[in-house]
Specification:
heterodimer, A: 501 residues, mainly alpha, two-stranded antiparallel sheet, 2 strands, globular, B: 518 residues, disordered C terminus
Chain lengths: 501, 518
């Protein structure tokens, strides 16, 4: 039995500094925004950005340190956490940048908006650094509750209300599953620490129905957060209804946070016992890709289309997870990074075209964009091609890495399903290109001015998408070292177990 | 190592793509684009003369690590098979830009030139890449600009055609990506390291069953591109709806990518599987020859007729490749160049007449000879080259192919010969209907003959047709060593597989099946 032992409480603040900075930032923004009107929230955005920048700086010293834990194993210190924290911070920063003009334009309550954005980012970072199930749960809830509110922030818009309501009800439901799963796992193993649970799974208790039922419920909980089929039903409505920058943040950030924890539990700690879960994941991955892509084919709204595309991309990540092993882990981490930049870029273009009182998110609204806004249209093409997986862009290298890992692990059929799905996806991504470039006439005219925030968001996404695609070596190296650093925890804990035994 | 010639060749067009975006005035734009396109042409001509003709290996090789973790390198090289295709590519792109500046592309000329240059980079890169990853990157890269060229500047059902083109090609090539990854996986087990380098992977002996599957995946990707019957259905649509320059590049160069892929990758990597599949591919090629010719015969639309004639001609190329003897393969490579010149020329001519009449219906013409003598004369030469009249280039290629095929399977040659007869039939019949007889439509009397720019576009093609028809030696002597090396490789692999000890060796090298497909 693991009784609480104050002597073992190894308090190390350094790894928590980035999280603390983000939390402080959230509070500062909230307080500073008390007297700021909704039309004038740009300054709050810059404050949020400053705190994110500081958090990024404090994350850098964590890279390359040997893997260890703090707070009695509750917090993991490793490249894996740093990798996800940096990606989450960048995601939040791009989201803030694309909101600088969007938020006042749509009269989003500035203080609440930026503060909740930071809190959500805090939750994601916490999930990345979590060392036990309770901290994972804390991070998940911090993230989710903030995003429930964010998605309903356009109070006058019924679609936004619907999004928040749906997301909250279904989200709470899935949190129940996750919590129940944690309870069952604790019941079966007497611990919330991942190392000993993994040992129990690999040992005699591996077949215990209680433990397996707990694992199954965890799978459902995470499946909901990453929008895997059949737990994806909420995604299109919520993505469509939420303010566009929030949708971008959900499509990228929530996936990052949820996958960070999901991967750490299943791929890192339970990787040795992959046979217990990856048959199920095989089926979920195939279903997720296929459903996401097929339903995306018939969408007339670009945010819904990108929602189904996000589902499909979660499916590709799950292909990598199914393969299990060190190469698959690195591949999945790399994929998430590539996906983050690409998707942020696509949503930035969507957000750039929207103006107050007028949502322009029907695909038909993009008609003739190549003539009226050649720059935005060209950027959209780059991001869509990257999502399709056309070389030499980030999305291609991500798929290449994941499929390569899946093939090396022997999953030939799953890989074939995945690549055929890629071909299907080409159709709906390229349909947007058709509307922008090849359809005569123009949709409702709109003048988009180059706003500094939006330009910066687009530029960052473009640089990420192209650079990761053309010269992926360093990022592959970072992903691989991140995953290995997480794996080294499991070796330490199994050694400790052996010593104790 | 040979300097940075190939890198320059591949990426100068990409520079050109961004350079033309800076041009604002239309006339200056076309002039700038054409002049810029002469740079890669000049480099490729320099390489043509600097090429050592007795050497079977790769020349002007460049190799730098790119993604070291995966054993992926930036590896370019040129041999006797790719040399002439490279020259053909740079030449046709220049001619297309020259032609398109003459009024064929009325809208958005800047983007047009941009996509043409990106396309050129993709084509040249795919021809020169010696690393499978790098090859795949360029292979996919050329899809996108062509998609835009058809979709924006095409005619009629252009969007349908563009989609069909992309989805067909992508379907084939994405399975090839899986095959590449699986081959690398086998290579990893055999060599102990991950590598995407073609030379390394050629040294890996793949077990019999995996080799069959991998060959099938590669062959599907390339067969779609060629296109072989029955996966050719994207071609008539794409060719017909594309703008003239798009059709020329599509027919002139892009189709050759499929045949080139067989010669560079599919056959050398999996020689035994290729030999096993020979009857199958020969049959498909013969069906394609006859089918293409028969369908071309009944087309009322000139451009569609030329498109179907491509199916027939590429059937000859595939026939020559799978004869797997020097005559057949050299003839196939030669015929690829011929087809690029003659079909490219035909598409240009059809484009010129379309520009004047805004129709391509054969029935709308008749008696053009009297009004457009220069056009008719040029058309005559190009058509005869396409038919394979002795003295012009088409004859040399077709003769070698038929000779090679006859040595391999005389029955295939006997049937394919019908294709040549049909080819002469539909071409001459078309020529008669368009050029001879009285002028039936009033409007045709007002047509003007070719202008200086149009003649300038056609002259290089005509000259090459005559030169290549009368004096094929310099070309054959440059491609022969590479072709011989390829065939020697196939023979060795065949012998090794046929001798009992060799078969055992192959069986023992079969990758461990501990992780079977799940």
């Amino acid at each position: 039995m693991n009784h609480f032992n104050p002597g073992a409480l190894d308090i190390l603040w350094l790894p928590l500094v980035p999280l603390i900075v983000v939390a402080v930032g959230a509070v500062v923004v909230l307080l500073a925004g008390v007297r700021v009107s909704d039309d004038d929230s740009e300054g709050l955005g810059w404050i949020a950005l400053a705190f994110l920048g500081a958090a990024l700086l404090f994350t850098l010293p964590l890279i390359g340190q040997s893997s260890s834990t703090a707070f009695a194993g509750a917090i993991a210190i490793d490249n894996y956490a740093a990798y996800f924290e940096i990606t989450v911070i960048l995601t939040a920063a791009v989201t803030v940048l694309m909101s600088l003009e969007y938020a006042p334009d749509f009269r989003l309550a500035g203080a609440e908006y930026y503060s909740l954005l930071l809190f959500a980012a805090l939750g994601m970072m916490l999930m990345a650094a979590a060392g036990d199930l309770i901290v994972i749960f804390l991070g998940l809830e911090t993230m989710s509750i903030a995003v429930y509110v964010l998605s309903g922030l356009m109070r006058q818009d019924p679609r936004s209300n619907e999004a928040a309501m749906k997301y909250f009800v279904l989200g709470a439901f899935s949190t129940g599953f996750l919590l129940y799963g944690i309870a069952l796992v604790y019941g079966a193993t007497d611990t919330i620490k991942l190392g000993p649970i993994a040992a129990a799974l690999a040992g005699a208790k591996g077949g215990s129905p209680l433990l397996l039922a707990g694992l199954g419920l965890l799978l459902v909980g995470f499946g909901f957060k990453v929008a895997a089929v059949p737990f994806h039903m909420w995604t299109p409505d919520v993505y469509e209804g939420a303010p566009t920058p929030v949708t971008a943040f959900m499509a990228v950030g929530i996936k990052l946070g949820a996958f960070a924890a999901f991967l750490r539990i299943f791929l890192v700690y339970f990787g040795a016992a992959a046979t217990h879960w990856n048959q199920v994941l095989w089926v979920i991955a195939a279903l997720t890709m296929t459903t996401g892509n097929l339903v995306a084919l018939v969408q007339g709204n670009i945010k819904r289309m990108l929602a189904y595309s996000a589902i499909a991309h979660a499916g590709y990540v799950l292909v990598g997870m199914t393969a299990a092993g060190a190469q698959a882990g690195s591949a999945v981490l790399f994929y998430l990074l590539a996906y983050a930049f690409t998707n942020l870029g696509a949503f930035s273009v969507v957000a750039a075209l929207e103006r107050r009182g007028e949502r322009r998110d029907a695909i038909a609204d993009y008609r003739g964009l190549a003539l009226s806004h050649p720059g935005l249209a060209a950027l959209m093409v780059v991001f869509l091609l990257s999502l399709t997986g056309v070389p030499p862009l980030a999305g291609f290298v991500g798929k290449f890495y994941v499929f390569s890992a899946a093939l090396n692990a022997g999953y030939v059929w799953l890989t074939i399903i995945a690549v055929l799905n890629s071909v299907v996806s080409a159709y709906y991504y390229l349909s947007v290109v058709v509307v922008m470039y090849m359809t005569e006439g123009e949709a409702r005219p709109i003048a988009v001015q180059a706003q500094p925030g939006m330009v910066a968001a687009l530029a960052l996404s473009l640089i990420g998408t192209v650079m990761i695609g053309v010269y992926p070596g360093p990022y592959m190296g970072a992903a691989s070292s991140a995953f290995k650093s997480a794996l080294s925890h499991t070796q330490v804990s199994s050694r400790q177990l052996k010593l104790r035994g | 190592m040979g300097g940075y010639w190939l890198t320059g060749l591949v990426f100068i067009p990409l520079l050109g793509a961004f350079f033309v975006l800076l041009q604002s005035e239309e006339r200056a734009l076309w002039r700038a684009a054409f002049i810029f396109s002469l740079l890669p042409l000049a480099i490729s001509l320099y390489l043509l003369f600097a090429f050592r003709s007795g050497d079977a290996g790769y020349q002007f090789v460049e190799r730098y690590p790119w993604i070291p973790g995966f054993g992926i390198s930036y590896h370019l090289g040129m041999d006797g098979i790719s040399l002439f295709l490279v020259v053909l590519t740079t030449l046709l792109v220049s001619l297309c830009l020259l032609y398109s500046g003459g009024g064929d592309i009325a809208q958005r000329p800047r983007e047009f030139c941009f996509f043409m240059f990106v396309l050129e980079t993709g084509l040249l890169g795919a021809l020169l890449a010696l690393d499978l990853f790098l090859f795949y990157v360029f292979w996919e890269l050329m899809l996108i600009p062509m998609y835009f060229l058809i979709g924006i500047w095409g005619h009629g059902r252009k969007i349908y055609a563009a989609f069909k083109f992309v989805l067909f090609t992508m379907f084939g090539s994405i399975l090839m990506l899986v095959a590449i990854l699986y081959l690398v996986h086998i290579g990893h087990q055999a060599l102990g390291r991950v590598t995407f380098d073609l030379a390394d992977l050629l040294g890996v002996t793949v077990g019999k069953t995996p080799a069959r599957w991998l060959f099938a995946a590669f062959a599907l990707a390339f067969a779609v591109k060629v296109p072989m019957w029955p996966v050719h259905t994207w071609l008539p649509d794409a060719h017909t709806e594309a703008p003239t320059a798009g059709s020329v590049i599509l027919a002139g160069v892009m189709l050759k990518m499929g045949a080139y892929g067989f010669l560079r990758f599919a056959i050398p990597l999996f020689p035994v599987a290729a030999i096993e599949a020979t009857p199958f591919f020969m049959a498909l090629a013969v069906v394609g020859i006859i089918y293409g010719a028969l369908v071309a015969m009944v087309q009322p639309d000139l451009k569609r007729l030329v498109a179907y004639s491509s199916v027939s001609h590429l059937g000859f190329v595939m026939l020559g490749i799978f004869a797997l003897n020097p005559q057949g393969v050299e003839g196939a490579v030669y015929q690829m160049l011929n087809h690029g010149l003659s079909t490219g020329g035909l598409f240009l001519l059809v484009g010129m007449i379309y520009l004047r009449r805004h129709t391509r219906e054969i029935a709308e013409f008749g008696g053009l000879w009297s009004r457009l003598p220069v056009f008719a004369a040029i058309f005559m030469v190009v058509m005869l080259s396409s038919i394979g009249l002795p003295g012009l280039n088409g004859f040399v290629g077709e003769f070698l192919i038929m000779f090679g095929t006859f040595l391999h399977t005389w029955q295939a040659a006997a049937v394919a010969v019908l294709g040549i007869v049909f080819g002469a039939l539909y071409m001459l019949w078309t020529y008669e209907r368009v050029m001879f007889g009285p002028i039936t439509k009033k409007i045709n009397e007002t047509l003007s003959d070719l202008g200086a720019r149009e003649i300038a576009v056609m002259v290089p093609l005509i000259v090459l047709m005559v030169v290549m028809g009368l004096y094929p030696r310099p070309l054959i002597s440059r491609m022969a060593p590479s072709v011989d090396a390829l065939l020697a490789r196939v023979r060795t692999a065949e012998q090794r597989a046929n001798t009992p000890s060799g078969a055992k060796l192959v069986a023992s090298l079969e990758p461990s099946r501990s992780h079977g497909p799940r």
